[in-house]
Amino acid sequence: QVQLEESGGGLAQAGGSLRLSCAATGRSFSRYAMGWFRQAPGKDREFVAHISGNGDWKYYGDSVVGRFTISRDNAKNTGYLQMSSLKPEDTAVYYCASATWSNSPSYFLSGLYDYWGQGTQVTVSS
Fold it and tell me: What is the three-state SS of the chain?
């Protein structure tokens, strides 16, 4: 079992930045991939970013590439999502997720992640 807790959400202005954190407890964090997803009201959950267990592989959703950066500090059992050049359409609840695999070509599928945090709200004002 693993428990995930997101933090760092809040209100930002368009063009601003926020950094989300995802603290993991309960098992070894460094072996497994993690991802960030988001869900806006009335919309499906959307893939945002993925990082492999060792941090060598990173992938991003089309809507955030070039603006968001995913990273991890395995020594601290924590993952991060640095969000820059924020837009109002980035407003959503952001979730971190942990897998039981290190890397996969299907990293963008939410159903392949086994553990989820409770989510943190990000609101971007225009």
Answer: CCEEEEECCEEEECCCCEEEEEEEECCCCCCCCEEEEEECCCCCCEEEEEECCCCCCEEECCCCCCCEEEEEEHHHCEEEEEECCCCHHHCEEEEEEECCCCCCCCCCCHHHCCEECCCEEEEEEC
